[in-house]
Design goal:
With about 325 residues, the chain is α+β, with helices and mostly antiparallel strands. It is built from twelve helices and twelve strands. Strand 3 and strand 4 form a beta hairpin. The longest helix is centred in the last third of the chain and has 24 residues. The chain is globular and about 60 Å long.
Length: about 325
């Protein structure tokens, strides 16, 4: 690890690589042209807001000591993020129906239930890090880094664990969560990368625990930890695979051609946000400026993940 992280290094995170895996054309439009659709993606905003409230829950549980006070404090942070993303704290009946189940009212119920269920753990766990960025050089790829940010790192009963907060609407009556959602985390590339990257910063790291929270109109008390721990051969395979995906991105960039993957035009949250562009415009006719309905917003992992924390004090 003689390489030094700088702002000019080639940096890849899970968001970029997942986008490319979905569709190289989507990657080009989002991360080369820096376009995104106007408007608010409710699942993303709810997830960001839930994360913000969880920072309060885990950081202040042992300091406050009261569950109601903690839930209210977490909800205040949720609303702060929610409003920063352009959504109203007070919703009309129409908006509440349109956004449901991802609304502040449901989030408030969820925080109260979450804190009650996790209370003993919150009292016992020692918080080691919150929103901890990491950056690791990719083997055999000079100047190329895989980066990310860990939601929480805790010491719990002598184990060093990463806690990753996730929200989902994948509900089933028996058990709360659809089995495909739970099982999907055992092969998830992001979680493997977090185990790899986190393990280099926390020597005693043993597992990543996905902290799943169900978002539902009526069921507000379904939470589940999904412990994931991969053996080194699986992590080594992930390193090789990730390096291959990065090489594919850079090969497409070198030839300036980004093929469409028509099989990913319809995703789990609906159609791709770039579908209207792709089905009407060939690659060689994409305009320089974003068309109506789109805006320029550059994704800069160095800033978003606050990687400057890793360079402070470096030579």
């Amino acid at each position: 690890m003689n390489q030094k992280l700088t702002r000019t290094a080639r940096i890849y995170d899970n968001s970029q690589l997942s986008c490319y895996k979905d569709c190289p054309r989507k990657y080009y439009l989002r991360h080369k042209k820096d376009w995104r659709s106007e408007g608010t993606a409710i699942p993303l905003v709810f997830g960001l807001s839930w994360h913000a409230g969880q920072d309060v829950v885990w950081a202040y549980a042992r300091k406050l000591g009261g569950q109601d006070e903690l839930a209210n404090m977490a909800m205040a942070k949720f609303l702060e993020t929610w409003e920063e993303e352009g959504l109203p704290a007070e919703m009309s009946i129409e908006d509440a129906e349109r956004y449901a189940p991802r609304t502040p009212m449901i989030a408030h119920e969820m925080y109260a239930s979450y804190i009650k269920e996790r209370w003993n753990m919150l009292m016992e766990a020692k918080l080691l890090a919150v929103e901890q960025p990491f950056a690791v050089p990719m083997p055999g790829m000079d100047g190329t880094w895989y980066v990310g940010r860990l939601d929480k790192v805790i010491d719990f009963k002598g184990q060093t664990l990463i806690i990753e907060h996730k929200t989902t609407t994948a509900y089933k009556k028996d058990g709360g969560f659809q089995s495909s959602y739970i099982e999907g985390w055992y092969t998830d590339s992001q979680i493997k990368g977090y185990q790899f990257g986190g393990g280099l910063y926390f020597n005693d790291l043993t597992q990543v625990w996905v902290d799943a929270a169900l978002v539902h109109k009526k069921e507000h008390g379904h939470f589940r930890f999904v412990p994931v721990a991969h053996q080194m051969p699986i992590i080594e395979e992930w390193i090789k695979d990730t390096g291959d995906w990065i090489a594919r991105v850079e090969a497409d960039a070198a030839r300036n051609y980004w093929p469409k993957n028509e099989n990913s035009c319809m995703g789990k949250f609906g159609p791709c946000t770039f579908l209207d562009i792709c089905r009407t415009t060939p690659d060689n006719a994409i305009p320089k400026e974003p068309p109506p309905g789109y805006m320029i917003e550059k994704w800069v992992p160095f800033d978003v993940l606050k990687l400057e924390k890793l360079t402070e004090g470096a030579d």
